Amino acid sequence: MEVELPVSGVVPISEMRGEDEEETLKLRKMETAARGFINGFEWCKGIREFYFGDGIGDVIAVFFTRIEPARLSVDEYLWIVVGDIPPAYLVIDTSPSPKASVGAYIAEMRNWVTLAKQGRTSEAVIPVNVPATPEWADALESRLNTLEQEIIPVWFS
Predict the structure, then answer these.
(1) How many CA atoms lie within 13 A of 9 on its CB side?
(2) Tens digit of pLDDT for each residue in 51-107?
(3) Domain ranges of the chain
(4) Do 66 and 81 contact (CB within 8 A), yes or no?
């Protein structure tokens, strides 16, 4: 029986494959990081289902998960983005596909960069696992620019 998912462009994690065996191993490590990241939140009792969206080993990977929420107010379906960038989870409301989730990720991280350049953060902006300083903001902005200008145009072509 095939499960109806609220997003498109994902495959069961057992079907995740890179371009070669080496990249597949890198993606498996990224899967482990994504699982550890989402399981680290007190509002996540556990992972019910886990899917692969897309990825480039050691650079960026997008996973989709159905969690067991600890509270009614928590979304059970989430995107998880990991890689050589700060990890993040995103709700699926405006992101129906892996490509859309990467776009939402970049937009959210750019909001953080804007505040961090001023040494500030806000509860209204996605949390990032580094201090909100101009130096970290510049480093993240550089990675986001590379994603937008060099990686995404080729990756999602």
Answers:
(1) 17
(2) 999 999 999 999 999 999 999 999 999 999 999 999 999 999 989 999 999 999 999
(3) 11-155
(4) no
